[in-house]
Specification:
Pfam families: DUF4112 (PF13430). The protein is mostly helical and 135 residues long. The chain contains six helices and two strands; from the N terminus they run αββααααα. It has a two-stranded antiparallel sheet. The termini are far apart. The relative contact order is 0.14.
């Protein structure tokens, strides 16, 4: 009997804007929209699920969100945009520190999606060849 094959996602390792964008979009997808809650058809990601673990979950998701800011810095984005992105991550972390309220807020305040919107606007303006059409 043949083993079932695992789906592999190949992410580029380059420093060009297209490679960075693909990596960042994959991380955002994982953190915000990776799973569907059965019955209510609501998409959640690791940010909301791992955030249910007190302290450790918030530290892990903060580190993953900070990675998006770091990658944006590597793209050469202006400091004010990086500060705005860092503020989104910090606000999400602060909300996550509040028991129960923070867990509910993780479903509503999607800092990584907000940050990717900032990155997409920057890339679409400064690297138009890498533009993608949102569906």
């Amino acid at each position: 009997m043949e083993k079932p094959r695992r789906m592999q996602i190949e992410l580029p390792i380059g420093n060009d804007p297209a490679s960075v964008r693909r990596r960042m979009e994959a991380m955002e997808q994982l953190l915000e929209n990776a799973f569907v809650v059965p019955g209510i058809n609501f998409r959640v990601g690791l940010d909301a699920i791992v955030g249910l673990v007190p302290v450790l979950g918030d530290l892990v998701t903060t580190a993953m969100g900070a990675w998006l800011v770091w990658e944006a810095r590597n793209l050469g984005m202006p400091k004010w945009k990086l500060w705005r992105m860092a503020g989104n991550v910090a606000f999400d972390t602060a909300l996550g520190a509040v028991p129960l309220v923070g867990d509910a807020a993780d479903f509503m305040f999607r800092s990584n999606t907000r940050n990717m919107k900032i990155v997409r606007r920057h890339l679409d303006k400064h690297h138009p060849a890498q533009r993608t059409i949102d569906q």
